[in-house]
Amino acid sequence: MNHLKNKVNLIGRLGNAPEINTFDSGRKLVRFSLATNERYKDKTGEWQEEVQWHTINLWGKMADRAEKLEKGQELLLEGKIAYQSYENAKGEKKYSTVIEANDFMLLNKAGLEVK
Questions:
Q1: What sign does the CA torsion over 50, 52, 53, 58 have?
Q2: Among candidates 85, 105, 104, 83, which has minimal Cα distance to 6?
Q3: Is 115 inside any structural domain?
Q4: What is the pLDDT of residue 101?
Q5: What is the pLDDT along the chain (115 residues), one digit of tens a residue?
Q6: Is 3 inside any structural domain?
Q7: Which DSSP string corresponds to 15-34?
Q8: CA-CA distance, 83 to 29, in Å (whole number)?
Q9: In terms of residue numbers, what domain contains 81?
Q10: Which CATH number fits the domain that encloses residue 87?
Q11: For 61, which DSSP code?
Q12: How many domains does the chain have?
């Protein structure tokens, strides 16, 4: 293995409408949550479903494309994991994990679902 890469591919559904932020520099950030789920059998043989929520950030031209997305739409996206830290209003240091997406594809369109 010559190259070790931080790369993530996810297929999921938007949990909310995209939140759009435009900065003074003109740079744009679009953020939304994406739900992925897995099904598995537990020790008793019962099917269980586990949902994971991911915070997705898109910048620049990808942000322009993502502005039109709607809650519930299914996406395939590619990006990388990023760790962020910030101070809240109480001065406490907080940490978060986000996916910085660099490309995405819509998997369902008005009445046409791609499986």
A1: negative
A2: 83
A3: no
A4: 96
A5: 567 899 999 999 999 999 999 999 989 999 999 999 999 999 999 999 999 999 999 999 999 999 999 999 999 999 999 999 999 999 999 999 999 999 999 997 654 444 4
A6: no
A7: SSPPEEEE-TTS-EEEEEEE
A8: 16
A9: 8-108
A10: 2.40.50.140
A11: H
A12: 1
Q: What is the pLDDT of residue 109?
A: 61
| Residue 1 domain flag | no
Both tokens of residue 79?
A: 């990006």
- Pairing mode, strands 47-59 and 93-106: parallel
Q: Which of 63, 70, 56, 58 is nearest to 110 (CA)?
A: 70
How far apart are alpha carbons 34 and 101 in whole angstroms?
A: 12
Structure tokens at 99: 């996916």
CA distance 39 to 21: 35
Is 114 contained in some domain?
no
Distance CA 21, CA 66 (A): 12
Question: CA-CA distance, 100 to 6, in Å (whole number)?
Answer: 11
